[in-house]
Amino acid sequence: MAGAALTSILLAAPYADAAGYRSIVHEVIVPTDACSAWAMWATDEGFQSFFPGGPGLKTHIELRPGGPFEIFIIEGAPEGSRGCDDCVILGFEEGRMFSFTWTNRPDMAVRPHKMHVVLTFEPLSEGETKVTLVSDGFGIGPEWDESYEYFIGAWGAVMAAYETVIEEAAVEGSGN
Question: Please, are residues 116 and 98 in contact by the beta-carbon 8 Å criterion?
């Protein structure tokens, strides 16, 4: 699926308008149906299957509006600085959209502020889905510039890992 990887690179881009509104957009095309692609974000097991840290990663995802979407990246850190503490699911539609809040790293000045992440899942064929991640909620100023630059790469790495896990599962499922 080399074409999909190239698509990911070409379509991953920061966006800023004249008023300073900034978002980060990453798109990948994965060899699976939209409901399966969606479920990987909406469940503890699914998220752990691709997010850096793997199956040992501690997560707390409750699929309901306002439900927790907590990802504990830094084991042993104090509560509130373990990763994506106190983040919540904003909304979802199975197989089509998933949205949640996300925090900045504990060492960033803008840590108390939450960003938004919206994923959309567009079926391209029976076994192929375009997944688009949009992260926004970035303010203006040097501290926000640091956050924005960090998440351009971080979300890119997450989406690349997500794409790789789905591609490997597709290859295993085909018997190759």
Answer: no
